[in-house]
Each structure stands twice: as C-alpha cells, then as structure tokens.
Amino acid sequence: MSLFKRRRFPVEIILLCVRWYCKYGISYRDLAEMMQERGVEVDPSTIFRWVQRYAPEIEKRVRQYQGPRSGSWRVDETYVRVGGRWKYLFRAVDKHGQLIDFMLSDRRNSRAAYRFLRKALKTVSDHPPSSITTDKLASYPTAIQRLQEEGLLSKDVKHRTSKYLNNIIEADHGALKRLIRPTRGFQRMKTAYTTIKGFEVMRMIRRGHCSLAQRGVTGEIRLVNQLFGLAA
User: Which pTM does this prediction carry?
Assistant: First the structure.
C-alpha cells in the first residue's frame, strides 16, 4: 500500500496506535509503553507522526459510511490551548448529537463564524439545515445573513438562540475535551486540527454514528481495517 510505503512497522500496528490514541485520549508516551508491553518498541514521536498522517485519512475514508444528518443544527464554540494560547474551536452537531463539522480559529468574530458555517454546509451539502441554533454571539446573525445573500444557505432557515437547546453540544464539548486534556495543549494549529480530527472521527465511530457491519469494538476494528483494504 503506497500510503504505508517505507514504514518499518506493519500496517496493523500503525492503525492500532492511531485508533487507540484517538479513541482513548492517552499521551504518546503512555501509548508507547503500552505497545512495549505487547513486544513492540516504538518511539512516542513515531506515533505522533502516524497520527498526523493517518488520522485525517481515516476521517476522509469514513465519510461514505456516514448516515444523513438532521436538519436541526446546534452550533457553539469552546476553547483549546495551542502554542500556549487559547484558540476557538467552532463545532456543529445535529439534534441527535451527530457531528456535522468543526473548525479551529484564532478569532471569534463574524468572519470566523461565516467561514465555519460555509465549511459545514459544504461538508454536509446533501443534508442542508432547516434551523441553526446558536448562543447569543452577535457574529452568527451576520454570518447567516451573508450566507443567505450569497445563496449558500436557504432564506427559509430559522436561526434560534437557545441555551437550553444547545445543552447537547455543550455536553459534547466536555466529552471531547476529556480526550484533549492528556495532550496538555497543542504546539501548532495544523497539528491541533489534525489530532482533533482523529478524536472526532473515532468518537463518531465509537458512538455508532456511521454504518457498521457489527457494533462494538470488533465492528470498529473491522471498519478501520476495511477503510485501508485490510479486511473483507
């Protein structure tokens, strides 16, 4: 497989490390020790490079297994430390908690809100929203109006501001940040975005938000292997 050309380790070991890191939110050093107990000597920096290379590939390949998303969106932002500074993590889920999209940003303004919503609309272009629920950040109405004027968002879409309705995404932020916490902050925006992409896709698979031939751990393993042609 060209994706794994010149890799010293078997594909199965590489995918196992990527899957475990993104699924359980452990440090690279702890994961290297866990692999050592299995008789595999691998450096934490090597696992880091695997995550950066293959987590986005898993996310890209799993899209065909994603089901439809509800038209009722919940949009919110949380904070992530990158390079010693707090950055904004925009996220959107549907009313059932299924991920729509996310984006890291230096700022929390109307331009950032517009970029994120445009990105999310492109990601789930086959399932456009009928309503978008946000907090009371003034940037969202401006961004939504601009998207509607550009014809990228239907003028019939309702924009609601409701803390109660957004409880689902606020709780989801907390679950994601429990995975992020062991990283003790990211060094660069690029590596932060790639790592979070891995966290998000493994959470989606684990929660059954994509079609699996078999539920549970066995189904997760089989799906990831199938994505790379390792299982029938």
Answer: 0.91
